[in-house]
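Final report, Chapter 2: Outcomes

The project's central promise was a pipeline that accepts a single protein chain and returns its three-dimensional structure in a standardized token representation, suitable for archiving and comparison. That pipeline is now operational. To close this chapter, we reproduce one record exactly as it appears in the project archive, with the input sequence first and the structure output second.
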Amino acid sequence: MKKILLSIVAVVCATLMTAQDLSQFKALDDSLFLNNATYANGNKYQRDAMLFVDMLADTHPYYITQDRRDLLFAAQPELLRQCASCTSDSAFVDLLIATLGDLHDKHTEVIDPNQLEAKMRAAQQREQLAVSNNDAIMAFKGDLFHYVIVPEHKVCYLQFNQCVDARTARNEALPRWDTMLDEMFAQMKKQGIKRLVVDAQYNNGGSSMLCDELLIRLCPLSQLRTLSTSMRFSRLMAAYNPRIAVAKQSWEDDGHIDELYPLPQGQVGPGFVQPEVFDGKVIFVQSDRTYSSAGILMTLARDNNLGLIVGTESSFSPSHYGEILPYRLPNTGVIGTISCKYFTRPDKAHVDDKTLVPDVTIDLTDKAKAWDTILRALQ
């Protein structure tokens, strides 16, 4: 049975990676509510509010326990009362966001599609403004990643802005992260550079594969403590791949009611060759923009004692939710994403920490001053 579940999970995860196009967002199924009088008599906002609460209860790993689901459903009557007088999709979105409360999961979102384009334009404008003419080494340069060797300080500075490269974006015009890392560490060895700064202050995530490729150059893979991952089976997941319904039923038939499904650790491929491990001093830079896969990089750096973390307190939880399922509410067209996995940090003594506190707090708004502080910390 375990092998069957694993094969289904692998197929589902691959399917979800292709479901980010808005046209592919699955509409929540209201068939379970067609005979519900409250649903039938409600306005479009009340109907979608009921579907939203049901989806949260059935999908998000936080709500795997009955007591949490009970609290969620206990708050539903007040939500429906507020939806009765709701007059706009944007106001409705605000009500749903309030329902999420202190879930502390930025991967679980509610979005008004009418405002999506404007928000995307605003985000692009912010990024364009952030690409400054400031020649400070830590200023955002607008690329995916780059490195600079500063020979007078015997330091290599790596600006890691996005966990994306030619392979993950399937775009050969983009640079390859692994190729750049090989080149960077070769240059550091050639020039006798024993100090490395990994700056992820602008990095909001992408593929964790890129973080892994950096980590195994800082710590032997055989010694690297990593996250453990659990997944929650749900009806929404089954909407993307019907085979998940089989896995869900099998898991529950084996007595695992209200339990997350533990995913196995990744296996090392037979062709894996351990890269040479850097034995110098490392500093990692994080900000409140560091998130998702970049947040995992910071967490694993801390839990594996790979170097100092400097910057600001994180906006992510070291143990966190992720692996999104997109959805669409059928009556309003409101869209969003919801997490279906829980990632647990290696340091079990701090598994419930809500933030990752830096070893040294640095004001990152003054790039030149921040760089001087880092250089002093490297001495």
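Archive annotation: The longest strand covers residues 335-344.
This record, like all others produced under the grant, will remain available to the consortium after the project formally closes.
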